[in-house]
């Protein structure tokens, strides 16, 4: 018994010590030589060295003995600066390898804060940093790996005003962003500032990599003079992504940046790497050269200063989904109103327009839900299933048959209401969607309902 | 004429979610080029929402076309004369990260 008490006492003593140590650690982290809230103000020029310290020789010995790199390459790395735009699935792996390799200065731009749904791929953030600035989080983690590198976290959204002052201060820029507008902004800014752009992207099980504006090769606009129609663009939040895919592409971006900075040439100027994780294939394709007609890097450029990229692309410079308002108020119901319908057992048909894989994650407590993915709303076999259900309900009375449409956030459900209305013109129905979708259900009706 | 059509980056979602299609182009008076291949694909392969793949007579912005692993710009774009056994790839550009 005494022994048990002793152990308990010992345990609480140790717990107190751990708490004290954690406090001390937090204090230390605050005092780190990390800059906070850096804006586009000019940095001091990166200190140039012409030889390596003994510590650096030990630290980088395994890459120093490579004849392609050697002391000359390592000195060049130490004297180089890289700006990573996007501290997410691509930015994390590229930052950690650039830091490990001993780049001189590493700038990290991200306006966003860490969320739980980031952690499966944005591997430098941690559970206890949810809510913290992503750029700060990446700088903190990299600093623990290599404190000899100078880290400059920028907690801001890159835009047409701040892009050039920031980019001009770095040697190489990494596009690790997640949206079309910022990709065009970065491209134009890099052409105007004369910087090489190492561009990576990833979605689902695929990744792509190219180095733009490199050795008179093409820029992003040479390849894509016109932005894609916004409805054809999928982000990671809607399309999904396997964490290791941006991991691999981000590592490739770090590798190309290291090659360029150390004087080895990049392999991806005027070439594109296509990675398919399902097939396990890496394919490398030859791209067009720089286009003399390109509006930004061509012979007679018409874009000589940065423009409004959200307007140019017709899309926001973030990958956050925003709530759309397609339907009128009276065509929508709240999650709470739908709860009442369920409780009062009112006859109705619930149409869930998400993909089948999403219904496996969670669905509303209605055993008779019909699943018609928003991409299949035109398919006749799905619609005829719905018609059968309408006719079943109709035989019970003459009133309009209520149809309720639901999706994850309440965007797809609105366009689905419009499509279904057209498809069911000759049926006596009243069709509404649930405003805010399952997210609203989780927030306003059932707090135990999962959000994804 | 036998050729192979491939799709990636999400473009396969418009073609039965199938990344590789071996197709036989029927004999015709005109020579097969990418321009009339796109028309043939629209009539014979593209079941729904053609606007997500085509715009006018060409592919929509954001789709890169490769002929035997080279950017189609290098071989004449729409006017490229298709050869037997060619591999033509349509890649939807990714923007995520």
From TrEMBL, chain A:
InterPro entries: MOCS3/Uba4, Rhodanese-like_dom, Rhodanese-like_dom_sf, ThiF/MoeB/HesA, ThiF_NAD_FAD-bd, Ubiquitin-activating_enz
Localization per record: Cytoplasm, Cytosol
Gene Ontology molecular function terms on file: adenylyltransferase activity; ATP binding; metal ion binding; thiosulfate-cyanide sulfurtransferase activity; URM1 activating enzyme activity
GO cellular component, one term: cytosol
Annotated positions binding ATP: 89, 110, 117-121, 134, 178-179
Keywords, alphabetical: ATP-binding, Coiled coil, Cytoplasm, Metal-binding, Molybdenum cofactor biosynthesis, Multifunctional enzyme, Nucleotide-binding, Transferase, tRNA processing, Zinc
Residues in Rhodanese domain copies: 344-450
GO biological process: Mo-molybdopterin cofactor biosynthetic process; protein urmylation; tRNA wobble position uridine thiolation
Pathway: tRNA modification; 5-methoxycarbonylmethyl-2-thiouridine-tRNA biosynthesis
EC number(s) reported in the record: 2.7.7.-, 2.8.1.-
Coiled coil residues, start to end: 4-31
Alphabetized CDD domains for the sequence: ThiF_MoeB_HesA_family
Domain of life: Eukaryota
Cofactor remark: Binds 1 zinc ion per subunit.
Requisite cofactors: Zn(2+)
Secretion signal, residue range per the UniProt entry: none
Gene3D superfamilies: NAD(P)-binding Rossmann-like Domain, Rhodanese-like domain
Location of the active site: 236, 407
Binding-site residues for Zn(2+), renumbered to this chain: 219, 222, 294, 297
Role according to the record: Plays a central role in 2-thiolation of mcm(5)S(2)U at tRNA wobble positions of cytosolic tRNA(Lys), tRNA(Glu) and tRNA(Gln). Acts by mediating the C-terminal thiocarboxylation of the sulfur carrier URM1. Its N-terminus first activates URM1 as acyl-adenylate (-COAMP), then the persulfide sulfur on the catalytic cysteine is transferred to URM1 to form thiocarboxylation (-COSH) of its C-terminus. The reaction probably involves hydrogen sulfide that is generated from the persulfide intermediate and that acts as nucleophile towards URM1. Subsequently, a transient disulfide bond is formed.
PANTHER family in UniProt: ADENYLYLTRANSFERASE AND SULFURTRANSFERASE MOCS3, UBIQUITIN-ACTIVATING ENZYME E1
Family: In the N-terminal section; belongs to the HesA/MoeB/ThiF family. UBA4 subfamily.
UniProt name for this protein: Adenylyltransferase and sulfurtransferase MOCS3 homolog
Species annotation: Patella caerulea (Rayed Mediterranean limpet)
From TrEMBL, chain B:
Any one GO cellular component localisation term in the record: cytosol
Gene3D superfamilies associated with the record: 3.10.20.30
Keyword hit for Disulfide bond: no
Modified residues (1-thioglycine): 97
Name of the protein: Ubiquitin-related modifier 1 homolog
Family: Belongs to the URM1 family.
Species of origin: Patella caerulea (Rayed Mediterranean limpet)
Protein location: Cytoplasm
Reported function: Acts as a sulfur carrier required for 2-thiolation of mcm(5)S(2)U at tRNA wobble positions of cytosolic tRNA(Lys), tRNA(Glu) and tRNA(Gln). Serves as sulfur donor in tRNA 2-thiolation reaction by being thiocarboxylated (-COSH) at its C-terminus by the MOCS3/UBA4 homolog. The sulfur is then transferred to tRNA to form 2-thiolation of mcm(5)S(2)U. Also acts as a ubiquitin-like protein (UBL) that is covalently conjugated via an isopeptide bond to lysine residues of target proteins.
Pathway: tRNA modification; 5-methoxycarbonylmethyl-2-thiouridine-tRNA biosynthesis
Main subcellular localisation: cytoplasm
InterPro entries recorded: Beta-grasp_dom_sf, Mopterin_synth/thiamin_S_b, Urm1
Cross-link (Glycyl lysine isopeptide (Gly-Lys) (interchain with K-? in acceptor proteins)): 97
GO biological process, one term: protein urmylation
Post-translational note: C-terminal thiocarboxylation occurs in 2 steps, it is first acyl-adenylated (-COAMP) via the hesA/moeB/thiF part of the MOCS3/UBA4 homolog, then thiocarboxylated (-COSH) via the rhodanese domain of the MOCS3/UBA4 homolog.
Domain of life: Eukaryota
Keyword tRNA processing: yes
UniProt lineage: Eukaryota, Metazoa, Spiralia, Lophotrochozoa, Mollusca
Keywords assigned by UniProt, alphabetized: Cytoplasm, Isopeptide bond, tRNA processing, Ubl conjugation pathway
């Amino acid at each position: 018994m005494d022994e048990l008490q002793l152990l308990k006492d010992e345990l609480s003593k140790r717990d107190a010590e751990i708490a004290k140590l954690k406090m001390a650690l937090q204090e230390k982290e605050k005092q780190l030589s990390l800059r906070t809230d850096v804006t586009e103000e000019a940095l001091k020029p990166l200190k140039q060295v012409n030889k390596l310290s003994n510590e650096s020789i030990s630290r980088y010995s395994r890459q120093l003995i490579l004849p392609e790199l050697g002391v000359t390459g390592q000195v060049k790395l130490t004297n180089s600066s890289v700006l990573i735009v996007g501290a997410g699935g691509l930015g994390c792996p590229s930052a950690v390898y650039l830091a490990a390799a001993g780049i001189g200065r590493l700038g990290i731009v991200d306006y966003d804060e860490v969320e739980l749904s980031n952690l499966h791929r944005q591997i430098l953030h941690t559970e206890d940093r949810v809510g913290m600035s992503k750029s700060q989080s990446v700088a903190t983690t990299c600093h623990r790996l290599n404190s000899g590198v100078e880290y400059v976290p920028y907690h801001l959204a890159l835009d047409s005003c701040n892009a050039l002052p920031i980019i001009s201060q770095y040697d190489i820029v990494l596009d690790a962003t997640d949206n079309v507008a910022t990709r065009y902004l970065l491209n134009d800014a890099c052409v105007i500032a004369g910087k090489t752009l190492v561009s990576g992207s990833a979605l689902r099980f695929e990744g792509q990599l190219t180095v733009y504006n490199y050795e008179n090769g093409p820029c992003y606009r040479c390849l894509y003079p016109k932005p894609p129609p916004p409805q054809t663009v999928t982000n990671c939040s809607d399309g999904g992504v396997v964490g290791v895919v941006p991991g691999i592409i981000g590592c490739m971006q770090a590798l190309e940046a290291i090659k360029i900075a150390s004087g080895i040439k990049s392999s991806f100027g005027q070439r594109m790497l296509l990675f398919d994780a399902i097939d396990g294939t890496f394919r490398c394709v030859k791209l067009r050269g720089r286009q003399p007609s390109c509006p930004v890097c061509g012979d007679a450029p018409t874009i000589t200063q940065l423009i409004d990229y959200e307007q140019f692309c017709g899309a926001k410079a973030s990958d956050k989904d925003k709530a759309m308002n397609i339907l009128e108020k009276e065509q929508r119901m709240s999650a709470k109103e739908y709860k009442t319908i369920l409780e009062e057992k009112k006859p109705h048909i619930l149409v869930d327009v998400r993909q089948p894989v999403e219904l496996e994650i969670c669905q509303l407590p209605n055993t008779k839900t019909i699943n018609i993915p928003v991409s299949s709303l035109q398919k006749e076999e799905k619609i005829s299933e719905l018609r059968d259900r309408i006719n079943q309900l109709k035989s019970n009375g003459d009133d309009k048959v209520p149809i309720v449409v639901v999706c994850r956030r309440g965007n797809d459900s609105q366009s689905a209401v419009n499509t279904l209305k057209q498809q069911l013109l000759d049926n006596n129905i009243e069709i509404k969607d649930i405003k805010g979708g399952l997210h609203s259900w989780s927030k306003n009706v059932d707090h135990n309902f999962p959000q994804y | 004429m036998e050729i192979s059509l491939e799709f990636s980056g999400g473009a396969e979602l418009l073609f039965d979610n199938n990344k590789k299609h071996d197709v036989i182009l029927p004999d015709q008076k005109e020579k097969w080029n990418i321009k009339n291949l796109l028309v043939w694909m629209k009539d014979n392969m593209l079941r729904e929402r053609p606007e997500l793949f085509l715009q006018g007579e060409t592919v929509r912005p954001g789709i890169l076309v490769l002929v035997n692993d080279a950017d189609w710009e290098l071989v004449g774009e729409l006017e490229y004369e298709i050869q037997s056994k060619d591999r033509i790839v349509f890649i939807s550009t990714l923007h995520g990260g």
